[in-house]
Amino acid sequence: MTVKQTSRLSKAVESIQPSGIRRFFDMASTMDDVVSLGVGEPDFSTPWNVCEASIASLERGHTSYTANAGLPELRREIANYMDDRFNAPYDSETEVLVTVGASEALDAATRAIVDPGDEVIIVEPTFVSYAPVVTLAGGVPVPLAVQKEDEFKLTPEALEAAITTRTKAVMICFPNNPTGAVMTESELQKIASVIERHDLLVLSDEIYAELTYDGEHTAFSNLSKMRERTVIISGFSKAFAMTGWRLGFVCGPEDIVGAMLKIHQYAMMCAPTPAQHGALEALRNGRETLERMIESYQQRRNFIVQSFRELGLDCHQPGGAFYAFPNVASSGLNGEAFAEKLLLEEQVAVVPGNVFGGGGEAHVRCSYATSLESIKVAIDRMDRLMQKI
Amino acid sequence: MDAKSLEVLRILENNGRTDIPTIAKMVNLGEDAVSAIIRQLETDNIILNYQAVVDWSKARESEGVTAMIDVKVTPQRGVGFDEVAERIYRFPEVQALYLMSGAYDLAVVIEGETMSEIAAFVSEKLSTLDEVLSTTTHFQLKTYKHDGVVFAEPKTDSRNVVSP
């Protein structure tokens, strides 16, 4: 597929590859009886009060565009939420933007700050779209692989080493997809000092912030001198089980959010109106359901990590998100070979760590956003595979 | 009650068959500790019983009849509603009994094989109690949801098998 066609397509598009997840998706979707730990979204349905609020908004005829930046009352609720939950106050009129998922937010934030040739450090392993988004914006993605020995946390030394005179920004994601790693406030403050010293910006993907199990999540903008340098990217997909609604938001300094609003108004106009009404209900009355879901994820995390360790897999304790990221080296295989064998021989779908960039080659990502029954079946089958190898 | 006991309770309320090794892993405790918690919950009569939620309409030809009966009664000096409640809940046909606020006093849930069986219970056993002033019987036509469990077809996972 990398054969160069005539120059009909842009060089930027030609230079990026489809996501490595695609191959596993294609393989797994043709098979029967697949137990999947490969799903990067909640297994819960959207809480019914949220669905109902959205349905009611349609019945009342709220079907037109909203303001480009999103419903004013939703932006106010988001600002309240950021303040109440993470002690990170934002002005709802100038510093909050409602987007079509965190994915659009990531793209718009990148386009808002990157000029051709600007380098953006991407802390890997991480969500698959960061590097392509930077490339499409004309920037240069600079992968920075974190290490298992550091529990997949970013160290100030590693960050320092990756910075050049062309570095514009750093993209981070904690709690992390795929590693589940979280960073404490004091660990993040050391990163913030490096950011400050080199005059960089931070795109902080905090979509999994609510799914932090041990300790409290720290909003990157709350670190000393980081408020003016940080764009927080978040959304409703993971915490409120609203993936298909495509609703995200950003909080950041006025100039960057203003620039993103320009991109958003020309590219998207506004986020879907019924989804915004649902999100309003999620923020106003969603806390109880959210906490039930968090408890359930946490129990399944405890279960799956301990079970992996009993299988002889080296698995660090993920502090957040809904992924375990075991090292499969004890099987004698790398992550990709292990995942393929597991799928073909035992019909269990996991995602090889290498699709999330450097640092994850010896690992597979196992989502525990699936029923405990499915997790147990998957573990039995993995056990069988481990016996065979 | 401590947080771990509450967590164990929620797990068992959701699925009473969750075994001790599984619960131990879920709440990060040893199996002995979980056994002790459950024993204590049982001893304290916080966990009273373990039952299956059964959709009888799929299990046998006659799915039986369930009725909910609103009962107005005269409370008794000194014991209030408790004595008449006991006289009612002792009947094995009575599946549930609640003291209610509002237009009537006791809500009785009763199960039988046929409507006439239930009619007989109401006219011969319930209405004849001295304290009972009146009854209103509602027959249940279909169970959509019971004890938090939806009785429709089991939900299938419609998510993509692999996603980023």
From TrEMBL, chain A:
<comment type="similarity">
    <text>Belongs to the class-I pyridoxal-phosphate-dependent aminotransferase family.</text>
</comment>
<dbReference type="InterPro" id="IPR004839">
    <property type="entry name" value="Aminotransferase_I/II_large"/>
</dbReference>
<protein>
    <recommendedName>
        <fullName>Aminotransferase</fullName>
        <ecNumber>2.6.1.-</ecNumber>
    </recommendedName>
</protein>
<feature type="domain" description="Aminotransferase class I/classII large">
    <location>
        <begin position="33"/>
        <end position="381"/>
    </location>
</feature>
<dbReference type="GO" id="GO:0006520">
    <property type="term" value="P:amino acid metabolic process"/>
</dbReference>
<dbReference type="GO" id="GO:0030170">
    <property type="term" value="F:pyridoxal phosphate binding"/>
</dbReference>
<keyword id="KW-0808">Transferase</keyword>
<dbReference type="InterPro" id="IPR004838">
    <property type="entry name" value="NHTrfase_class1_PyrdxlP-BS"/>
</dbReference>
<dbReference type="Pfam" id="PF00155">
    <property type="entry name" value="Aminotran_1_2"/>
</dbReference>
<dbReference type="GO" id="GO:0008483">
    <property type="term" value="F:transaminase activity"/>
</dbReference>
<dbReference type="InterPro" id="IPR015422">
    <property type="entry name" value="PyrdxlP-dep_Trfase_small"/>
</dbReference>
<dbReference type="InterPro" id="IPR050596">
    <property type="entry name" value="AspAT/PAT-like"/>
</dbReference>
<dbReference type="InterPro" id="IPR015424">
    <property type="entry name" value="PyrdxlP-dep_Trfase"/>
</dbReference>
<keyword id="KW-0032">Aminotransferase</keyword>
<keyword id="KW-0663">Pyridoxal phosphate</keyword>
<dbReference type="InterPro" id="IPR015421">
    <property type="entry name" value="PyrdxlP-dep_Trfase_major"/>
</dbReference>
UniProtKB/TrEMBL annotation, chain B:
<feature type="domain" description="HTH asnC-type">
    <location>
        <begin position="1"/>
        <end position="66"/>
    </location>
</feature>
<dbReference type="InterPro" id="IPR036390">
    <property type="entry name" value="WH_DNA-bd_sf"/>
</dbReference>
<keyword id="KW-0805">Transcription regulation</keyword>
<dbReference type="InterPro" id="IPR019888">
    <property type="entry name" value="Tscrpt_reg_AsnC-like"/>
</dbReference>
<dbReference type="GO" id="GO:0043565">
    <property type="term" value="F:sequence-specific DNA binding"/>
</dbReference>
<dbReference type="InterPro" id="IPR011008">
    <property type="entry name" value="Dimeric_a/b-barrel"/>
</dbReference>
<dbReference type="Pfam" id="PF13412">
    <property type="entry name" value="HTH_24"/>
</dbReference>
<dbReference type="Pfam" id="PF01037">
    <property type="entry name" value="AsnC_trans_reg"/>
</dbReference>
<dbReference type="InterPro" id="IPR000485">
    <property type="entry name" value="AsnC-type_HTH_dom"/>
</dbReference>
<protein>
    <submittedName>
        <fullName>AsnC family transcriptional regulator</fullName>
    </submittedName>
</protein>
<dbReference type="InterPro" id="IPR036388">
    <property type="entry name" value="WH-like_DNA-bd_sf"/>
</dbReference>
<keyword id="KW-0238">DNA-binding</keyword>
<dbReference type="InterPro" id="IPR050684">
    <property type="entry name" value="HTH-Siroheme_Decarb"/>
</dbReference>
<dbReference type="InterPro" id="IPR019887">
    <property type="entry name" value="Tscrpt_reg_AsnC/Lrp_C"/>
</dbReference>
<keyword id="KW-0804">Transcription</keyword>
